[in-house]
Amino acid sequence: MVIQSTVGMLKDCFFHFCPHCFIIISFMQFQLQPPCSMVLPIAVEDVKREVKILEALKGHENVVQFYNAFEDDSYEYIVMELCEGGELLDRILANVTSSSNLCLPSSIKKDSRYSEKDATVVVRQMLKVAAECHLRGLVHHNMKPENFPFKSTKEDSPLKTTDFGLSNFIRPGKRFQDIVGSAYYVAPEVLKRKSRPESDVWSIGVITYILL
């Protein structure tokens, strides 16, 4: 029997996949990434690369934990650690009480609500992820507040990094020529089609500015 619900339960080998749900297995919660269409060959390669990257970063305290990947004739399903604390963007917006004319994403209004001490805790975790990626020959390519959820709703919850769909492996001596990422956070070198791993650090710098 398959229960049509936003919550799936693995029991007696029967289960139900849904694009926006989590699966409960022996009272352990997981999140299921929205299924990726496997119709186009390039989509197949993109998903396989993302899974390979998640496996390479498995075990890092600030990267969403990867558990497994499944596929059928049409989709690839990625099962990951469930993060219930909301995105970093949510906490930024929760601190907003006034606006300004500074050039920021329309969803974010500048307000000095993060102290330097609090911002340091957040930024240090993002830099640790960037360092781990670069150490393993990877570049994230899409660091932004929406891609940094918190593990739990606790104030001191660890930050997690998600969305490695645009991430790629570094080729020695080569620069990335694709324009990827989110407009407000991409480094100038990305727009010039000659970016390197340092573009992740630029994105973190933009986030730091927003926090402060």
Automatic annotation (TrEMBL):
The keyword Nucleotide-binding applies. Residues 1-212 form the Protein kinase domain. The keyword Nucleotide-binding applies. Keywords: ATP-binding, Kinase, Nucleotide-binding, Serine/threonine-protein kinase, Transferase. Pfam families: Pkinase (PF00069). GO terms for molecular function: ATP binding; protein serine/threonine kinase activity. Belongs to the protein kinase superfamily. CAMK Ser/Thr protein kinase family. CaMK subfamily. This is Protein kinase domain-containing protein. It comes from Gossypium stocksii.
